Amino acid sequence: MKSIFKKISVALAKRKFRKERNIAENRMLAEEAKLLKVTLLHKSQDIFFIILGVISAGFGLKGFLLPNQFIDGGAMGISLLISETTNFSLSILVVLVNLPFIILGYSNIGKQFAIKSILAIICLALAIYFIPYPLVTSDKLLIAVFGGFFLGAGIGLTIRGGAVIDGTEVLAIYLSKKTGLTIGDVILIFNIIIFLFGAYILSMEIALYAMLTYIAASKTVDFIIEGVEEYTGITIISKESEKIRQMITEDMGRGVTIYSGKGGYKKEGDELREIDIIYTIITRLEIARLSTEIDKIDTDAFVIMNSIKDTKGGMIKKRPLAK
Fold it and tell me: Residue 40 needs a FRET pair 20 to 30 A away by CA distance; which of 11, 109, 146, 314 works?
């Protein structure tokens, strides 16, 4: 009799084990499907923004600036200046001039950013070479304003996709960590040098119009990415705060601050739910990646983004987590 009860107990235990294992496997499959869905959604959005940015930037270059011997600031300005003075292919120059900045971005921002950026730059080079953009106007004021607008829209959309087609910003972020200059100061000095060369090699008039083009482009970039400045403060409220903290510190190499808080929504008689609130600061080039990683962990996370002009001290520079 005892042996029969023992066999029944063993059979029930095995059945319970199989059931729990199946539940665990189903949960794992559901989690993997969720991660795949979030990843594909964000990748599709990034690709859409980058393609749209490349088309817009190509239109600004070939439809306005290049046929009329105009230049811009940044790495794109260097490419245009060399192309105008040597008749070297702009498509090749766009890749060559930006390549050092992308290598710098690989070591300071990340591999994913560098790969997306070099692919975006190659796509821009191919668009300039193969797409027959029409010449829109020969009016110098319209060229400066609208050429800068479409070029800036292209740069901004590409940043929204987590990449760059003008590597000046990567250099500015790097130098701001090494010197006492802000990112804005570095970009301004860089562009002043380009405009001075433009005035000397081409003409003062072209250099003045280039400044107008640069202003139009930079304002459009700020508009496209919703006014996000060089650094962005991110506040994250989530029930998966520990996983998000590990992702930011271990995968992205950024510092975080944890605030203890309580959920304010409750019924009468219930206790307020205690939660950990995460705060971190990243560059705007990393916003797309951070949003994707947060959605992989908790699609219901409440995320607040605040524009920050500049920072000093703290763990802003990317570094590996100490073992």
Answer: 109
